[in-house]
Amino acid sequence: MVRRVYCIRKVTGWSHSWEVVKLPTETFYNLPEAKQQAIIEAAVAEFAASPYDKASLSKIVAKAGIAKGSMYQYFENKRELYLYILDLAYAQKKRFLKDVFDQADDFFATLKRYYRRSYLFAKEFPLYHKIINHYWDYCAEFEEEIRTSRELRANDFLTMLQQAIENGQVNPELNQEAAFFVYHSVGKELIDNFIELSETDQAQHLQFIDAVLDVLAEGLQIRKE
């Protein structure tokens, strides 16, 4: 009998919430490390190239050099393999962003750190970034998980925003849900539309991220003294 291990994973900081996740079987961990890595790399490549519902398990096993039947000794099904790979992607992102919220007393400075670091994550781990983006695209398989994740992301932001309001950094009359929508939408565009920049242009884009966030922080309207 194949024994499966379970864990509950929850990542905050506008990242991800988890259902109960089935880890690979012990059979997978008994494989030589090179074979484990070959399976992971093949799955990462396929799930980055295609969203979950269009990703091909046949392509994954062919690239990994294993029989399709063998994959079911390591993962119960395609969904569990996908969740494992998604978990790897978010674990890497969490490590990459680990100190962003250490000093969250300045709301606007924290946002700059978050979006700058998220952009650098996308540059350094483009396949993981694509997998994470695919997750947020509509897929009936994960409709409930995505809805819960979006609520948690919004709550994380709104908690920070409320603290900033109480600290006198943000206008208390601001529509908070609109603020989340604007920051989330603009931040996504600042990352996804500039991934292909050269290393030379990357530094300039980080400054551009700061400039765009300054516009959001300060607004366009001239303030009357």
What's the layout of helices and strands?
Elements: E1 6-11, E2 16-22, H1 26-29, H2 33-49, H3 57-64, H4 68-74, H5 78-96, H6 107-124, H7 126-136, H8 143-166, H9 176-192, H10 199-218
Antiparallel strand pairs: 1-2
Helix pairs in contact: 2-3, 2-7, 5-7, 6-7, 6-9, 6-10
In short:
The protein is mainly α and 225 residues long. The protein contains ten helices and two strands. The protein folds into two domains: 82 residues, Orthogonal Bundle (Tetracycline Repressor, domain 2); 127 residues, Tetracycline Repressor, domain 2 (Orthogonal Bundle).
The structure class reads: mainly alpha
Quote the average pLDDT. 87
Count of folded domains: 2
Poorly predicted regions: 5-13, 15-20
Principal-axis shape: elongated
CATH superfamily of the largest domain: Tetracycline Repressor, domain 2
At the first level of CATH, the class of the largest domain is Mainly Alpha
CATH architecture of the largest domain: Orthogonal Bundle
Any idea what the radius of gyration is? 20 Å
- Write the element-wise H/E pattern from the N-terminal end onward: EEHHHHHHHHHH
Number of helices: 10
Query: How far is the first residue's CA from the last residue's CA?
Result: 75 Å
Strand order in the sheet with the most strands? 1-2
Helix content: 55-70%
Number of strands: 2
The CATH topology of the largest domain is what? Tetracycline Repressor, domain 2
How is the main sheet built? 2 strands, antiparallel
Hey, roughly how much beta strand do the residues contain?
5-15%
